[in-house]
Amino acid sequence: MVLDISTINGIIIITLVRRLDADSAAAIEDELKKIAEQCPERVLFDFSKTEYIASAGLRVLLITTRSLLKTGGTVALSSLSPQVRRVFEIAGFTTIFSIFGSREEVHYCPAGRMDRIILRNC
Predict the structure, then answer these.
(1) Consecutive sets of 10 residues in the chain, 122 residues long: mean pLDDT of each?
(2) Which domains does the chain possess?
């Protein structure tokens, strides 16, 4: 499984796959571990292609985020579909992540505003 990874304005953007579930979680976790080992400062998980997320996908996201935060990185999410956003709401994740409507919104966020564990929209 290959994630779409790019860097724009110092932000590593990881566009996630269509389904984040038990079938894809292990492969995605392996790829995200490699990224986290590089200790990036700012990471954006772009959910624009994600149609479904299960608890296994949430777990991978939490593990990766914890790893990134331990090294001083910050994490934000963007482009959640209504269905995916609902799963995040039910899991309580909307209170711990900054969620942007699109990846473009993040580029207008000053770097200093993404320096907390609980991120909020700028």
Answers:
(1) 86 95 95 94 95 96 93 92 96 89 74 42 36
(2) 4-114 (3.30.750.24)
